Structures are given as structure tokens and as C-alpha cells.
Amino acid sequence: MNLYLLINDRTYETECQPTESLLEVLRRLGLLSLKSGGCVRGECGACTVLMDGEPVNACMFLAVQAQGHTLETLEQIGQNPEQGWKKTEGFDPIQKAFIESGSVQCGYCTPAMILAARALLRQNPNPTEAEVREALSGVLCRCTAYVKPVQAVLKAAADIQKSGLVLTEDETNLLAYEPEMVDVQAIPETETIGKSEVKVDAAKLAQGKPAFTADMQIPGTLIAKVLRSPYAHAKILSIDTSKAKALPGVAAVMTWEDLPRVVYSTAGQSDPIPGPLDMFSLDNKVRFVGDRVAFVAAETAEIAEKALSVIDVTYEPLPVIVDPRDAIKDGAIRIHDEEEYVNFADSDPEINLAARIRIDIGDVEKGFAEADAVFEQEYVVPKVQQAHIEPHVALTYWDEDDRLVIRTSTQVPFHVRRQMAPVLGLPVKRIRVIKPRIGGGFGNKQEVLIEDVAAHLTIATGRPVLYEMSREEEFIASRARHPMRIRMKTGVNFDGTMTANQMTALSDTGAYGCHALTVTGNTGQKSMGLYVGDGEYRKHPNIRFYADIVYTNTSPAGAYRGYGVPQGYWPLDRHLDNIARFLDLDPIEFRLKNAIRPGEYQPFSTAWNEGREPVPEVIHTVGLEQAVAAGRKAIGWDEKYGNKDWHMVPGKPHLRRGIGIATVMQGTAIPNLDMGGASIKINDDGSFNLLVGATDLGTGSDTILGQIAAETLGVNLEDIIVTSSDTDMTPFDVGAYASSTTYISGTAVLKAAKEVADKIKERATQLFKAKGEDVDPVNVVLKDRHAISPSGSKISMAKIALDSLHWRNQEQIMATASYVSPNSPPPFAAQFATVLVDIETGQVTVEELIMAVDSGVIINPIAASGQIEGGVAQALGYGVSEEMRYDENGQPRERDLVDYHIFRADEMPKISSIFVQTYEETGPYGAKAVAEIPLDGAAPAIGNAVMDACGANVLENPLTPERIWEALKRNVESNHDG
Amino acid sequence: MKMTKTELSYARPVNWDELEALQQEFPGQIMYLAGGDYHPRAKEKVSVLIDLQELELDQVEFTEDAIILGGLTNLQQLGDALESADLLEAISIEAGINLRNSLSLTNYVKSSNGRSSVQICLNAMETKYRLSGEEDFQSHSTTLKAKLVHDFVEDIRIPSPNSLAFASVGRSPKDQPVVAVAASRRSDDRIHVACGGSELMWAEFDLYPGNDDGETTIRDLYKDVNDKWSGADYRQEVAAVLLSRCLQKLIQDTKTKEES
What we know:
heterodimer; A: alpha+beta; seven-stranded mixed sheet; five-stranded mixed sheet; globular; B: alpha+beta; five-stranded antiparallel sheet; four-stranded mixed sheet; 9 helices; about 35% helix
């Protein structure tokens, strides 16, 4: 039917089906600022459009319903101020504030937030913080914790009003974008490093430009859908696809019988994959509810869905293992009985064992024997989902040279190319992987999860194929954080000296063993490695970490930001806090007394290296003590901890306040393995192209790498044109994981930039000589877009570029470098939390979270604080609300963002970050990692705060009201028992 | 009326006569588009989509003894109309602002379940619903919800007074509740209580002045409410606490009103 829509003051006439959603039609009309969160039920708000001035979800209306209404999208708002000769009005104040405040991380929800803010400020030009939060409550963001978007809207309101805006003190403080910085040691002066430069991709994302995978529209593209198993464990006896194939508009239907049987792992990791190969694109057995059964490609999504519904599958259900404790029982059914299974290390499919870890450092039994007291307790950590707002999405097509192009939302483009090649039957050289902007990944896109679906269908049909997972598929069939049962045993002397520490984990990898070994290895390495003991024990720590990682018939676990470490800190830190309480030790002093110090070995580096030969590593920078001091002051620890009055709420006898701390350590890259490459070349105007294989998934790594290049070359960030993550165009990089990009890829950029700088200095020397000035190249300084001689003479970068490219002894000034590090200098942090607990219902309200972090030198404070805030918000969910559970048949409880609740803007506690700067000599400009450490501390700090508030010792997170209530009930019962 | 004929027709009647004509022409083959909805896809065997937006069902009317909302009003309009802080809190738990603006009340009622905080409040206020073409208003029930799959609510009647107290417990301040209680003082001084927190649980009862505080009743209602979200023991205990808080609040509200 013909449809007329009034959009952005223009009437669009288009053909549409009456059943098409407004979202589908607007995107087809090229209004690609509206994004899909895959839900079709208004859960995420990424598809926000203003209808008659009010923010609504475009997925909740059919396009025909919008006829006669006024629609506004982000395309109408603001323009890039720099458009050559054309004069423009520039960005809208809201866009400008979003760009400058660091509100744009992955940018997938940014258009929706800007529109929601626009609607608010029209109706209420002087909003309070609460009103801003309310206005943003319809848009879920997984990156920012809404801290900076709220700042941006308040700032935009102030800018629009210019005068007359009355802000509270808190709101005025909110407008200060820069985080608090504390220097532990002297930090060298720099020009660009340490400045909160605007992210290089912020402008395009704040304009809603078509930067994401699904934003590329190729005529004739087929839509892929996947038939998924309703059974948790079953053999496929037969599949009849005849009805599906007969449907008009269906281009291909594929089952396991149509594909070569190539075993692989979906874990996007370096070769060889440190885990078992146990997966096929399609198999004749399903191992979890949501496992793949068939692929369909059709002209429309509706036809593809119809085709799925008429595929007739006969299953033979098998016994189901849901509880990992059952997986290792004698007689348990074997989940992986395929003959192609490839073992790695100690994996043993006969006993459902995906991996096994046994690490002994020192003599743990001796340490226990020497302790004044030994404490044992079991803790449980849940399975949780990354919940990135952009679902997994891949677009595949044959290019004009018959090479397969995979445009995909991935954190690991080079691994995708290498790992997909055998699965698709193509050599690596005939595959090109392009990573556009990513709408969040948080580890879930370190998985080579869906590229094969689209690629197989492109191979089968010869046509472009787009496959985008639905929100339900994300929950039932992507990856998640490994749930674990962890037993702690710790020997302590009465003076607080830790004599031995033991962690034993049973980790559930789900149906496939992707990341099974490495995630769980990290659980021990990065948490237990923090505490070495004191005195003689410090010199010879006694630490044991044992883990069994088992298969169950649940959706596979995998990589999730923090990569196993948050699982370690819930039991470890809760355990230490409980010990401190039992022995009446100061909880902060107890932690610091036993924590690792500069100059000491990371104890695990002497015994463990992800299945490879250990390489002992000394830790040089530890800002933990200073982080504790800064956080302690900011949260008001000394006024609150142990203060009975503060713990009570006047007039509300059922409420109690509590305060808690957790101290944590992460890693920075995988030593001797992670490698990144960078290439830099000069252009005619003295600007540079920086090509990196590193993958910016919204973290700002393109900006950070650009800043490192700009600093080294003496130019501005705007002079660095960053191109990343295209396997044809950029150097190799392992990808975005393990907090490696700044450190590894950044050092590669630094090396390449230094080489380019040397060449520039050489040429400048010749130019100085031509002017009669003899200069040694080593004395030439690159600064302010010039080469500067010791006498102060200057030659512009543009002149050097023209000289090299056009005038004399022509050459392309360029360099390529790569870097692999022998080190993994850990960042450290102190996480503080305050909570309010309703002791009658068990409901906990987190009031404030402050994280003080030693991440070395902070290259971009606003971007880094955005990482901390967003990470802490995810950890807040891990602490109180997020959890994936299964019934006894393996049916998942969570299938959408309603049941799986992530925090909205209008319920967030106050979240802030403080950076305690050390100078890490091995890192580029002194930097260490930032991105993962914020995931580690919030949950245990909240758990400790709940304990402090009301004595509820909850051993399993999240801290649901019922768990707190049960813990309180146990206390009452034990008091009664005497 | 504009009518577009394709494989599936779309019509937007501008008055009730036109709607009636369409209903007679396409009996049993109609899907109503009654404002924003979850998964707004046409079902099989539907020949025509009838868009109700021109029928002035998005109006709010205040009468002496009730507030009457058209079926196409949305959650935001509901909150604006009643100006009850507790209802606004329940709406806020139910939905962020986009959803409040998008989802019509008829579609909300159709898809609500026992964990829907607004529905629990509506039930406490003894809200009644009039389906299209029907004379009588009816209470919320599974029958009503079943009918809404093929029908729509024309009017929603919230009788006065609409004093309301709502309390719930979830995993975060805006999470769907696992226990929720709403109580409303009615014109005959009775207190009507509605509770939920489990998907299949709809429960309501009355408390009379001078009689019991409802603790036994509410504990009884939750005694077998075990589901994947919470256990009955916990719910029984907490529901009693929440009911007590709601009753306290109603008493406090009455006092405040009397004093003012």
C-alpha cells in the first residue's frame, strides 16, 4: 500500500505492507539513526522516534499507524560544522553536549537519548537531574551508567538557557565532566596524553550516521533466521524442510545434512585455541534450548519466520544436565560424544569435563597448619548476560573479486577470518572481515558466533545475507558469564597475616567449551593473585587454585568483560570481609596488609599461563593503597563505618544503612601472546593516517590510539585519521579483549609513531640545513604541528609532508610496527559502596558507588571515567539484579530485557570514579588497562555493605530481596538457638 | 474512511458507523490497531487491520464519580489523570517513558500479568472495562484478557475516590515486583486490596473498618505462590509487611486530608 509519512518536516511517500513496523519502514527510508535492539516490544528504546513531539518506540507501532502524525528523527537535528565552503548551523546544543561530555561510548543508543532529551527540553527547559533521568528512562544504555548523558542534558539545558538556570549544588557538580585525578608519582608533561579529547567517532554517532553493521543496505539482501532447539538435549532424528523451501520468497534452507562437518570453537582467540573444539555450524544433536537446528534465508524477515515455523523436526529427547554438580557424577549422560571432538589440555568429554586447572603456589597445607584459624565457606556466582544493546549482527556478500566480505559486529575481526576459513571451506585470503562501529560487545562479541550463519547462506545463494539476532536469541543462544560454585579456605593469624589461601571452583561452561579454560583460569589468577600474605608469607605465598569446568545442557558461557575475575572477587572479597569481622580486624588494613606490593611477583605468573609455559613477572606499579585512601575519603568511610547513628534512618525503623569496600586487581593483556599492529603514513597537509587492527567497541580505543600517535608526532588528535579493524586494510591485531588495546596496540602505535617521527626529524634536519642551520635530528622536537630546532626555528608538518611527497628525494614517510609484551601490569582499584536495606522485605537499594582506580597514566580522563562508570553499572547488576536461571528441563527463565532487568537511568545510584595515577614504565606513556577492572568490585562491596547494614551474610549473588531476607532469618534462628 | 486493499487490508474508520460497517464486512477477520502494542504483527486469518485512532478513544473524562479513560489512552495519560504518587511509582516501575507514551491501556490490559504493577493498582481501585459494542463494564479477569485478543477496550472506568497506596519489592527500584500490594479506600469506607508478584496470580479482597488487618487473608493468598521468581514463604511474609504499609499510608492520607 502507499504510505505517506511526515518525517522531519518532509513528506515521504513509500510502498509498504500494512504489517510493517514503523521501525522497519523508517530504516528502509534511510532514517538509520533508529536502531533495533532486537526486541520488538519497546524494551530498550534504541528505536526512539518523536511522534507528535513525544518519545515513543518505533517497534511498537505499525508504520500505517504513524500516518497523519508528525515524526522526528535524529537526522533532522544538527550538522557537522565543518563542511567545506558550505556554512552550517553546526551541532544542536544537545548533540554538542553529548559529544563533549563523553556521553557517546558505543553510540548505539545515543540518537534515542538525544531525541528523548530534545523532547524534554522543549517542554521543560530547566529540568532537574531527576527529571532528566525520567526523560532518559525509556532508553537503555549498557555503556555509560547514564552518568555522562545526564550531565550532557543538564549542560545542554544550561547552554540553551544561557542564563536564569538554577542548579542545585549537586547538579552544578554534575556538570564537571572531568573525573578526580590523584598523582601517586611524577607524571611527565604531555600535550595530548592526559587530555579529555573528544572521541574521534563521537560526532558521527551523535548524528546517528549509518555507522553500524546493519546500517549498510545492499539491494537484494536476504534476511537470515535460525531455527533453534526447544529441547535442552536431544538427537535430531529427521528434518523435513520441504514446506519451508516451497514458500515463495524463501531462498535457502540449510540443515546439518547440507554442510560439511567441520569441528571448531567459537571462542575468538589466538591460534591454537586454548580450549576444546566441540562445535559445528549445524549438528545432528542439540545440546541446549536455543541450539541451532536450521538456517533460512528469505526475501523478508516475515517470510523467513514463516519458513522456520513449517520446518518439521523429529527429536529424540535425552536426559538433561542443568546443575554442574550433576555433570561430574558417575553415570551422567555424556553431552559431547561426537567423534570429531578435539581435546585441549585436560578436557575430557567422557566425563563432561571441558577443562581442568590445578595450580599450587608454595605449600598451602603447611600454611593452613601454621594458621591461628582457618576459615572455609562456599559461595555461588550466577550466570549473567552482556546485554549489549546492538544484537549480534553480520552481513555477508561476495565482492566483485568473488571474495567473501563479512561485515560484522565483532571484537575480533582477524580471529573471525582465521577461524571461519575452514568452516566455510575458503582460504583466509578469500575472506575480508570489516568491523564497523559496534553497539556494545562486552566480550560477547569476542565470540565467532553468527558469521558462519550468514556466510553459509551467502555461499548457498550467491546473495548478500543479513543475520541479526533477536533479543530472545541473545538470551538463550549467545554467550554469558560462567556461573560457578566456589569454595574458599583461608588460613589467617590473629594479627591478620594470611598464611594460605585456597579457592576451588566448579565452573559451568554450558553446552560448549568456549573460553572454558581461560575464563576460569583468570578467576583464580587475577583475584587470588592479589593477596600474597605478609612477612615471610609475602616472600613465599601459599596459594592454591583448583577448578573443574564442566559441560551442562544450558546455553554456553563465554567471554564477558572482566573475563572470569568478577567470579573470583565475589567469594574472595566477601570471605575476607567475613574473616575481618570474625577476627575483629579493620577490613581495610586486613586487605592492605596482605595485598601484593611493587617489586613482588604476581604469584600466578610463576605457575600458570593459560596452558602455556609460565613466565614469572614482577609487578612494578601498585597504587592500591592510594586508591583505598582516595576512595575512603570520597565515600566518607571514617565517618560512616562503625558509626551506629549513621546506620539508622530516623523515622524509618525498618531501614538500615551500610558501607562496604572491595579491593581488586585485573590484568593488562595476555603476556607473550596478545599482539597488535599499527601503520602510520603522512599526508600532504601534515596529517596522518593511522591504521590499526585494534577493535574499538565503544570504549574509545580509536581515540586513545590516535592520542598516542598525536602526542608522539607533535600534532593534534584531529590530524590523525584513524582507520581500524578491516582485515584487508589494517595490520593484524588480536582484537578487543583482555584489556589489551591501550597497552598492546597502543605500544604498537607508539613504536610506529616514533619511527615516523624519526623520519620527520631527519627530513626537518635537511630543511633546517637548507636554511643554514645545522641540527642534530635527535635535538629536533615535534610539537604544535611543527618540527622545532634547538634555536626555536620551526618547519611546519605540512611543509615536511610536501617536501617528502613532492619536492625532493621523494618518499612516503611511513612506518609499521607491532608489539607483543612480556608483561601484564595489573590495574588495581578500591570499590566502595553504601546501601540502604529494608530489613522487613530484604530489599536493598544501592545509594552510592565510588571506584578509585590505579590504571597507570590516564590517557583520556573522560573516556576512562566513562569506562569505569559503565563497568560499575554492569557490576551493580551482577550485585543485585542480574541472573540467568534454568528450570529442571533446561528451559531458560530469562528471554528478554524485562525479566532480565538492567538498570535504567531513573534508578541508578550515584556512581563516580577517581583515578590514582602511577607511571607504568612498560606501558605507552605510562598507561595500564581500564576497561575490565570496574566489573570486579561492586558486587562484593555491595555484599559487604549489606552485611554491614544488617548482618545479612549473603553468600550468593545477586543480592535479591529474598536472599537477604533468608540470611536475616538465619540470623534470627541462630540467635534463638543460642 | 480510507481503505487500502492489498493482500491484507488496512482501514482507519473516522466514526463508529464506519467501524460497524467494517465489522459486519469482515466478521472474525479483523485485527484492531489500538495504539502502540508489543509485537504489533498481524496474526494469521486476519483480512483487515482496523486502526482505531480516529475514534477519539484517547480522551480522558472526569465525571462526578469516576475518571473515564478511552482505551487508546496510554500509561502516561493514566498517570497524569490520577495524580497519585503511588500510581506514578507503579507506572514508573512498569515502564520507562517511551513505553508509557507508546503502549495504549487496552493493549496494556491485554498483555498485563500478575507482575504488572499498574494492573495491580487498577484492580485495587476497582477499575472496570467496557469492551467495544458492549453496554456493561466488567472487572479485570482472565476472561476479559482473553477477549482482548480479538477485541478492544472502549472505556476504562476508575471509580472515585481513587485514593491509592502501593508497595512492592523487586530486585532494583524499577524491577518488576515479586510481591506487590495495592490498597484503595472506596466510597463505602471499605478498603479494596489487590496483590500480585507472580505471573499467574490475580488476587483481590476487601477489608472493612474495625475488622481484621488482612494479614491472615494475604498470607493465605500467597501460601502456594511458588514460582521461578520467588518462594511462597518469602512472599507470605513480605506481602503482610507491604499490606500493613499500604494500610498505614491510607490512614495517614486520610488524616492529612482531614487536617487540610
